Amino acid sequence: MDQISSLTPRQIVAELDKYIIGQNDAKRNVAIALRNRIRRMMVKSEIQKDIVPNNILMIGSTGVGKTEIARRLAKVAQAPFTKVEASKFTEVGYVGRDVESMVRDLVEQSIHLVREVKNEAVKTKAAESVEEIILDILIPPVKGSGITRNLPSTASQEEELTSDSELNERTRERFREKLRNGELDERKIEINVKATSPVGIGMIGNGLIDDASMAGLQDMISGMMPKKTKKRKLSIAEARKVLMEEETSKLIDFDEVKEEAIRLAENNGIIFIDEIDKIASKSGKNGGGPDVSREGVQRDLLPIVEGSSVNTKYGVINTDHILFIAAGAFHVSKPSDLIPELQGRFPIRVELNSLTQEDFSRILREPKNALTKQYQALFEAEKVYLEFNEEAIEEIARLAFLINQEVENIGARRLHTVMSQLLNDFLFEVPDTIEPNSRIMVTKEMVEERLNTLVKNRDLSQYIL
Less Cβ around it within 10 Å: N or C end of the chain? Predict the structure, then answer.
């Protein structure tokens, strides 16, 4: 966490630049929002609890980087993150997801993050315990040590017991070495594991119970039932994984995990609400029909974004300091079509630019997870080496940009469909026809041959997602 707290807005933008091309205004605003959270935690006076985040509304077409900016920001901040689609929510009283479920999703992510950290802290100790359990199964300890006998033990009996114990210990050490070298991984052993019998729950009331509540109810009922174990025969490699989970759980205080997770979600959580324009009343409408339901969802969202307490199966979470980032294309509606109270809760508005042909070229070259690098990794997994020359990359970018203009602008996602069309034949032939240690050079001529005819004939149906 110390490393995160030292990140300046400029450094945060530099981290985002490794994965996202352009959109500098959006990156600056989210970087300031993240740094402000760090600043709030550094405030020592009582005013700290009154400093609320400036939630952000991103406006831009699909595929320009809205979701990626929010997701990468969460990774930079090592913060719990959840993405929801506003169009999936329904007003209270209707069948569908209620708005509080996004907070429960965030807490689940937070629990996962905290458990990962805790697991790492006890990993060595848990591994030692697992090793001893497996050794006890392979080489049972010598019986008799410390056991009261009916007859007084003689010197010869003690010597025999000592000799057996020493031999047993030497054998264990040999097997311990084999275990660590992986020589026994395929050997089958029988272990006791916790039986996970599913808890059946019927419909409750009118059936309007969400997944998190259902899971909480199942946990409660499971907790009241006696713990059972069953025997399973597994390879040592598989048994090690199963036992590692059990031993790790024993070493971790789950109450502490829950407390830390709630605290992390409250202070560092990021909720990304996509397609918020879908719940805005259409411009020029009088508010009838489906607009009534859309406004209902907005009014349900309002207290969550303003700050309220939400019950989860891990405890109550306060949403005052969660950062909300909303996004939408706003092709049909406008941000001003949202109810005024909700507009006021997203004071920072950022318009993302449409991607240019030059942006497409940079997206193919520069990011750490660039699409060209992803395909190279896929081919290299089969020991086939894929290369792109500069002219080929420029041509791919040009065609993707052209198709977006001709058909429908889906932003950088168009590059996925173009690259798939270009390289799928090669992927099909590896390794049957294209053997290991082969090299494939993608040139401008190859790109034109495989893609240009389709563009000229306007036979673009296969590019439409």
Answer: C
In this structure, are residues 218 and 199 in contact, taking their beta carbons and an 8 Å threshold? yes
* pLDDT number for residue 324: 95
CATH code, domain carrying 450: 1.10.8.60
Q: Which of 298, 332, 351 is the last residue of a domain?
A: 351
**pLDDT confidence bin for 97, thresholds 50/70/90:** confident
Q: Are residues 84 and 167 in the same domain?
A: no
3-class secondary structure per residue, 360-375: HHHHHHCCCCCHHHHH
Which residue reads 């791919």 in tokens? 396
What backbone torsions phi and psi does residue 218 show, to the nearest 5 degrees?
-65, -40
Tell me how crowded residue 427 is: count the other CB atoms within 10 A of its CB: 15
Strands 309-312 and 315-318: antiparallel
DSSP result, 48-111: GGG-----EEEE--TTSSHHHHHHHHHHHHT--EEEEEGGGB--TTSSSB-TTHHHHHHHHHHH
Q: End of a domain among 307, 322, 351?
A: 351
